[in-house]
């Protein structure tokens, strides 16, 4: 029996990324690659996307811009899930072809979830310039209450008396070295959780006669709704208003990175 992914992840900088990727399984590898893409994405791409939305809706409050992000993310997730499920209606598409389509759709979902999380953090004034901090933000949102509990435990003496800090505040206080340890432990948990969730929705999407299309869209919408709820809890409240005026309409071009045009539909 091959060793589990957990055995390759050690605290601090002692992890073996290549061994981790080999042993993580298909869904786990998708998560690792999506995480790497989100972490390597330029901060300006994320900030420019939020600024672009503000320029298109200059009178919107932070809460209203967040609603746009929620809507775009949910629409993309639902559309991609239905598209993959509908492919099962095509005669002769075959199991392997359907599985390949699901693999691509899962990558798109994880990419969108990662981007959505970091954009939502930026909207709250969180510093997203440090790659490892972006990784921590994404992981804590994917994990939900489990990620929140872990950051609370690892915060230790960072707590202010007996008051529990929001996860995003705790993450902002960790040193880069400490973040490496925290991220390794959260990745260990996330690999198990994402594999389970993706696997549960995977079976329904290859069902024939159009059933897959319904299950695909419903499953992805449910996952997207969970990510949105986790982000609201982990990232904390939005500011009541922006501290800077919205960019003039037409002054900010929409970023062209990867899936962003589909994200905005």
UniProtKB/TrEMBL annotation:
Residues 1-23, 246-265 are annotated as: Disordered. This is EcsC protein family protein.
